[in-house]
Amino acid sequence: MDILPIPVLAAALAVAAAVPLLVWALFARPSASATQARRNLSRDLDLGVAAGPGARSAPGSAVVLALTPAGTVARLNRLAGIAGRPAAWPVARLIAAKLVLAAVAAAFGLLLAGSRPSPLLWLMAVAVTAVAYFLPELMLYSRGQERKDAIGLELADTLDQMTIAVEAGLGFEAAMARAGQNGKGPLAAELVRTLQDIAVGQPRRDAYLALAERTGVPDLARFIRAVVQADAYGVSIADVLRTQAQEMRLKRRQRAEEKAMQIPVKVIFPLILCILPTLFIVLLGPAVMDMVAAFRD
What we know:
The chain is an all-alpha fold.
């Protein structure tokens, strides 16, 4: 039996080792946790980049950002942060959508007002153009408000979970990680983002304050300030969590009672404008018709 030469054997071994590596390189994908961490950490680095793996800047994003006033960019950036920075709507795309919608609305308004010139049509064209320009911003603001409400509703239950975890012997960050893993809402995602910021070297105090600034929820900001003060003065974090959880539950109950008390006031206007006129027509209509017929006779 002939023995293969050493160079041929080495080449065969190299090919045999390269084939699995090639298959792994072609079909391997990053884990979900790594993808989420990369998306969270790169979310605020480039305003024109959609957060996501493999995302690249749009061709005209730099031009759009350069031609837009800094105040508008800062306002949209703040609203996008409160709304959770939707991956499909970076700031550059929002600005482009505002300009395109305003241009389309202005063109249709000019065509309509030019065909039948009148002050009312010109006023309507200007109003529609203004609404089209601010429409993406209003939608982003609405999404941010919904996200803030969801975080406010989840805060009390999340603090209860963290209180139980801390009293069971876990540290504050471990309790935060457990709450972030068990939760599914925007608050859990923000807790995971905060832990990732701490893991890459950001100071704890800065990471906590960034969490309060990103969400824009007053109750969460108050809790963060209490945690920062407890960390600075050496107060027991379990006592802080217990106190804050009780306060958040009380505030949630008070907000529910406030909304329940507002229901009768909100019902008055539909009742007066829609229900009562119809009821009067149905009840008094036949009597009025009989009275009119009697006076005619």
